[in-house]
Automatic annotation (TrEMBL):
Limits of the Fe/B12 periplasmic-binding domain: 48-316
Keywords: Signal
The keyword Signal belongs to this UniProt entry's keyword annotation: yes
InterPro entries hit by this protein: ABC_Transporter_SBP, ABC_transptr_periplasmic_BD
Pfam families registered for this protein in UniProt: Peripla_BP_2
Protein name: ABC-type transporter, periplasmic subunit
Signal peptide: 1-29
Amino acid sequence: MSDTKDNSFPFRPSLIAAALALPMFAVQAAELTDMTGRKVQVPDAVERVFAAAPPVVPLVYAIDPGKLVTLNFPFQPEDAPYVSPLVKDLPIVGRYTGEGQPPNPELLAKTDPQLSIAWDIPFIDAEQVEQTFENLNTPGLFVHLEHLADYPAAFELVGKAIGEEERAALLAEDIRARMRRVGEAVAPIPEVERKRVYFAEGNDGLLTECYDSFHAEVIELAGGYNVMRCETKAMCGRDPVSLEQVEKLDPDVILVDRPKAFAHIESDPAWSGLRAVREGQVYLVPSKPFNWMGRPPSFMRAVAMEWFANVLYPERFDWDAEKEIKAFYALYLGVEPEVVDVQAILGKG
């Protein structure tokens, strides 16, 4: 999985030169069907991609970061060892969906994309997004990215659109294989025997996700039982709860989305009455360079699922964190294994 030939993400300007040298009929559009069933004419040689929503950035990045012309969220300084230099200076233009402003049309136009890719989700204004496609005079694809199971098809579609079918197929099959391995390990566990998990979000740990939220699907993929058996009402989730509610739910494990909340839960006497805290079953979600749980939702949920399955059921899912995380970062992020600080990523460094 760590073959550097597959993972170095070379930017290939020679492809552009070769495309320009071809007769016009050879670079005309080919028809693709996106994940909503729309027929889209896509140029044969795509080198400049606008990712219209946060989850699309890591999707394209994993295939070839050199194809991105914009970002819609900033990387943090501590992410630097894991971020390709091809994207570190890209403009941040805004986003469709999530928290933040919609794309800045003037700034976006200056990036001159050849293809736009958007996230198809019920909370998005699809007409507004399609109008952006028209304003940019680019073809636009919609992809499904809510769930980890969506990623193989999304990789394959985008890989075909941007001329990276072989790498996209490799990533798609890897996602399928990881989901299959974890599923086989945890599927036999009866629901009454599954570890009960509370997902603590926000600075005080008192925001959370319902069990059906894609922001928390890693819990159930890993064989856990999300104690919040509610229905998600808004895309961003983060439903408020009280500490008294959490105490009554009595989770076996607490998963925490940010360091500040992790420190708060570990040190605040009000949380010390919870069995998970007393027994040392509080875990910080890794976030370098993309959040492992899903803000934005990405392929990082594949390694999160494996990590958390091993946390919950080490006797069922044997997993070497040092080896596997390095291999994952090499395959998906193009990072050499010696650069990957596994203990720091897991919040133990």
